[in-house]
Amino acid sequence: MRVFRGHSRPVPDPVVLAIGNFDGVHLGHSALVKRLADVAASNRLAPTVLTFEPHPREFFAPGSAPARLTTLREKLELLAECGARQAMICPFNARFAALSADEFIEQVLVRACRVRHLIIGDDFRFGRGRTGDFTLLQAAGRRFGFTVEAMGSVTVNGERVSSSAVRQALLLGDMARAARLLGRPYIIDGQVSHGRQLGRQIGFATANLRIKHNPLPMSGVFAVEVSGLGDRPLPGVANLGVRPTVDGSRPLLEVHLFDFDRDIYGAHMAVRFVHKLRDEQRFPNIDALKAQIAADAAAARAFFELA
Questions:
Q1: CA proximity to 113, closest of 131, 137, 93, 97
Q2: 147 in a domain, yes or no?
Q3: Which of 28, 50, 247, 281 is the most exposed place for a label (fewest CB within 10 A)?
Q4: Cα–Cα nearest to 73, from 89, 94, 96
Q5: pTM for this model (two decimals)
Q6: What is the pLDDT of residues 132-176, one digit of tens each?
Q7: What three-state secondary structure class fits 229?
């Protein structure tokens, strides 16, 4: 994927464009991007997404903004899998937030993105005071020479797919519901880093991933599958949280892979959360923690039907 940061310079060629925050890249997002790719192919233009960093709600209300489902890297990787070939990332700062709806259209859509066809979600609003809407975009399209379409909501089992619904499912530990809304298990990826070696000392070596999601969308102990370390996903058990028993403070993802003994420091891997086993909790001592980890590993093995 080709990535453009900021809108000070125009993209090389006209594009078909989709706009959104795309947090989590759920089924609604993937349907929009697949439509984007189809229209772009029929017009021989690059399918391009426009997104924002940070999330606008993080700018306006940093203390109450929702937990991010995906880092920027994860989001771009998932959008590329859906068919996007270019992305423009607009820094959402005071200057950007002050753009009127008309200024957003002229400076970002027309001048920077060189849009020929625009696809938005049915609830998209933009510009200072959120005054821009589909009707305004249609009028601007007639003036500047681009067309506009709005995608309706996607529903699964009667439920509207949204990032908020995914967050709720994760918070409740309903990994099956989250997977239905996302179209895949929830994933966190990252680079394996060195830890305190505590897991190895108590007989459960772990691959440690530093987490950039803050706050975490969920925490606890999970049965997981890991990709990126071989030809097939590897089963394991993982703790996502702050490790209260060992006085952890920073969020960390610790993954113990079953029947696996390779040095993977520095490797980039993706962790798929397929089933929640329990909430994270504090134990009175390391022996109690070790016993619970053994029970968690056994429960995860049973989930995967491993001997």
A1: 137
A2: yes
A3: 247
A4: 89
A5: 0.91
A6: 999 999 999 999 999 999 999 999 999 999 999 999 999 999 999
A7: coil
